[in-house]
Amino acid sequence: YPATDYKDERDAYYVQGYAGSGQPGKALDAVKGLIAGDVPGIKAKLSSGALILPTLVLAVVSATQICSTGKPTPDQLDTGEKAAHLLLDYAKEWFAPDNKSVTMTDGQRTQGLKQMQDTANGALLQIALYPALSILGNPPSKDAATCAKAEPAFIKALQDRPDSGQIALQLANAFFCQRAVSSDKLQQAVFEYARAVVVPQGPPFGLDAANQKTFDGFLTTTYTRLHGSDEGLAGLKEMAKNSPVPPAGFKIKTAGEIAIEEQAKFQKDNPQLAMWMGIEGQLLGDGGPAYFEGSLKDADVHGEGGAKALKGKVVGMLLKTGDKPAKPAACNPNELLVAINLPNQTGDVAKVKLHLENWALKGKVENGADVQWDGVPSGFTKEPFLLTMDVADKTKLDVAITACPPPPPPKKSAVPPAKKKGVE
Question: What predicted TM-score, i.e. pTM, was given to this entire model?
């Protein structure tokens, strides 16, 4: 009897039969005609509410099952999505307090409605994710090219369900698996991990408390490695609340980029110290002597725009005569020992010896006095560390000079007292 007044009821029982016998695809095919016309349509076809609700539930469960274990057709996915939305709408009516045909307590009505909503929303999540997850395979592929193919499907799913932390997490994983191919993908992954942990929690669309905590920790670790600290993470989370996908121009400064910016600022603000740090770093390395002989020795180290190349503090005066070793001098030195402290470095250890070529200072330089100079490196020892630089003339040196103290007066020789006249 293919044509009968009870054809729709028969289809409803087919849905139950197929679903109960593990044939979710056929269950969805059987329910397709029943759900045309939304709630009014199915109520016109099936007069018994007691038959409508289990039919919709089993159709929705079948949609979830076929996404997990089968290969649904686009038509079956569409049918499952319509059945899930219909179940959400019909459940509100069925479990309404004024529905006299349902004899339940208020608590039972609330619990029953929630169960129907969780079932329908769970199916909608699986249907939304299926196109992308089917590309990744089971278990999900970690191949960057495969993740790239799945990425557009995840983005579409998230745009369709922007309230879903679960979908944001799946998109984050797809971005993350492409991080070796493009640094931009790691940036996008961090954004989506933030989105996943800040949207409303709880299944089916959000993360449960345990997963939210786990991925929040993963987000913090990944962001800190990328950025160099957790500074700005709170702002990123706020941004992620307002956009399901990264906005145009989204960028997290990397630790390397920040270091380059800080280095550029340091060089601009402290050009003399920055120049010295470069010189000292090279000299302290394993190739220090070779760097000195091949690049630094006899080079004209000078500043730009009238500024001197290097700056330090005088920690000693020397006087060198001929080939004899230099000796400490109290005044009129022709060599100065200079300390150059790096950031967070203190002390008065001489790192540079300024040799005044064929001239000497007229006066004395107090220890701790600032000195700036241009010079030509002429000697280097690594142990102890000391770079000798020749300073050609007074125009190459800026240092405060004070007058030498006057020499002490000569001692007067003792004169014996004169003898008094008339005294023997």
Answer: 0.69
